[in-house]
């Protein structure tokens, strides 16, 4: 996990150094990193709770 978090930190640092602190690209990188994991965990939780809606019933 530590190695993966370093990649996000590097992406944020690169965006800020390349585009500047006040740019939209740097803001998008920071917001994307902070929002991505909670959104993905929420989607997984939703799919797990509603899996009976889309599971194929066996015709045996």
TrEMBL record:
Report the GO molecular function annotations: antimonite transmembrane transporter activity; antiporter activity; arsenite transmembrane transporter activity
Q: Does the keyword Transport apply?
A: yes
Keyword entries, A-Z: Transport
Q: Which GO terms describe its cellular component?
A: plasma membrane
- For this entry, the protein name equals Arsenical-resistance protein
């Amino acid at each position: 996990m530590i190695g993966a978090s370093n990649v996000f930190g590097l992406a944020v640092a690169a965006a800020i150094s390349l585009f500047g602190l006040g740019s939209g690209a740097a803001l998008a990188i920071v917001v994307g990193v902070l929002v991505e994991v909670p959104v993905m965990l929420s989607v997984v939780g939703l799919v797990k709770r509603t899996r009976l809606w889309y599971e194929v019933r066996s015709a045996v």
